Amino acid sequence: MRERNVRRIEPPTACVIIIGNEILSGKTQDANLQFLGHELGKLGIRLAEARVIPDIEDTIVATVNEMRTKYRYVFTTGGIGPTHDDITAPAIAKAFGRDLVLDAIAVQRMQRGRFELNEARLKMAHVPEGATLIENPTSFAPGFRVDNVFVLAGIPSVARAMFGTLVAELDSGGSIFSANVDVFMREGDIAKPLEALALEYADLDIGSYPFSREGRFGANLVVRGLDKGRVAEAIGRIVSTMTELGGPANMGAPEEVA
Amino acid sequence: MRERNVRRIEPPTACVIIIGNEILSGKTQDANLQFLGHELGKLGIRLAEARVIPDIEDTIVATVNEMRTKYRYVFTTGGIGPTHDDITAPAIAKAFGRDLVLDAIAVQRMQRGRFELNEARLKMAHVPEGATLIENPTSFAPGFRVDNVFVLAGIPSVARAMFGTLVAELDSGGSIFSANVDVFMREGDIAKPLEALALEYADLDIGSYPFSREGRFGANLVVRGLDKGRVAEAIGRIVSTMTELGGPANMGAPEEVA
After folding, report:
1. A49 and B50 in contact by Cβ < 8 A?
2. What is the 3-state secondary structure (H, E, C) of chain B?
3. Which of A181, A256, B250, B257 is deepest in the core (most CB within 10 A)?
4. Smallest CA–CA separation between B215 and chain A, in Å?
5. Cβ contact B198–A48 (<8 Å)
6. How far is B26 from chain A (nearest CA, A)?
7. Do A118 and B192 touch (CB under 8 A)?
8. What's the pTM?
9. Chain B interface, mutation test: which of A13, A17, A22, A27, most B Cβ atoms within 10 Å?
């Protein structure tokens, strides 16, 4: 988007690092990125980038160190279980130049579980020195936070539960407002007038996402921005422009994301 | 994985760059990464990294230039439609320092479509100078290849169709073999013996992926490698070890990925 002479508050930024060979090999479909992108958006935090990397220590260390200086918040998912291929905690410790230490509170929490605290399970109670724990309401092994890096589980239900407990720690940006409309016309037929509107509302993000539903082609047009009034005005202009061209359908009521 | 005195052929590497604000905002669930990871694996090509980046020209240029020197193949998805937020083609041209030119063959193919070839649609026939087109069997606008960078559509059905037409251009690595078994025991109870096996079979990748199904906890143990015999031997040892510990179930027959 080109900038116009309109006040634009830059929201805090975030990055997600998905750690796991199983995502790259196609064995597993990631289900955390969409959740985190959506939840951060509701808080007014802009997810600026995501990376999917393998379970290789040097790669994790380098990626975390690059991302934690570049973005306000970093969220990692995956690799904090008890098996040999779970290497996220020691890699994060190495990235921060800290020792990996046994956390007494984590041990206490894990003792609430019904399971033998063997060597493999105690591995999950090791965190980088000075880390704060992230509560895990669904099972006993905690995530942890070091500085601006939040280390979450890879299992979606656990990652979601952990995220719920850490939301209060995040500096939220201004609320982001969003409105969208489905237009049953081909993108190629609406691109020109849509671009004119995007230029006119350069303080907003206006996106076009084509779809095909039951043989009908169309596009979902989305307006996002920090000013509720501007978002409502822009979606109104889009609807009237598209109506002149042949008519939109299924207009979503302008909706407040957060 | 630590290396042992075992021959290990390094397979060709690849990277996927997913371009699109809609993936980062959580509006859309990506469906291309898993497909590409799986298909590349079948060809013996290792997907080493994936990045999800926004529709920002500088970011696309920088990411493509970093990845195309780092990996054998780069696949991008998204941003090649007709609307103002589709900026992948000019960004790829910029990354290679080439002009964006109207491709006569692309125009010809698009003339097969039933739609008015207006300015917005002609945008989709512009590719970096010297690019080769990637056939698009499902609709008329082609993808393109510049050097080792393959530019695909974001819509999953179109990306899949395009990938199918370019497979023959890829240097495939050795075949990768894979076998897996579901074990209905908690990871914490099997981590130690599994690690011993992973050390013994250091020429293979052995992964553990926990699950919870209908209230039962377990882990899917996966062996992958280039030597079919070693993979079969390792999964056999895992099964016998897990049987001694309490018994696996649902063992998948050792399966050839490619």
Report:
1. no
2. CCCCCCCCCCCCEEEEEEECHHHHCCCCCCCCHHHHHHHHHHCCCEEEEEEEECCCHHHHHHHHHHHHHHCCEEEEECCCCCCCCCCHHHHHHHHCCCCEEECHHHHHHHHCCCCCCCHHHHHCCEEECCCEEECCCCCCCCEEEECCEEEECCCHHHHHHHHHHHHHHCCCCCCCEEEEEEECCCHHHHHHHHHHHHHHCCCCEEEEEEEEECCEEEEEEEEEECCHHHHHHHHHHHHHHHHHHCCCEEECCCEECC
3. A181
4. 13
5. no
6. 4
7. yes
8. 0.84
9. A27
**A35: nearest CA partner in chain B:** B26
Tokens 């907003």 belong to A204
Split chain B (258 residues) into runs of 10 and give each run's mean pLDDT.
42 95 94 95 92 97 98 97 93 98 91 81 94 84 95 93 90 80 88 93 88 79 88 93 77 49
Contact A208 B49 (CB under 8 A): no
| Residue A10, SS3 per DSSP | coil
- Percent of chain A, pLDDT > 90? 57
Say which amino acid occupies A51.
R
Mutation target among A52, A136, A187 for the B interface, most CBs of B within 10 A:
A52
Note the ipTM here.
Answer: 0.83
Please tell me what DSSP assigns to residue A246: T
Residues of A in contact with B46 (CB under 8 A): 24
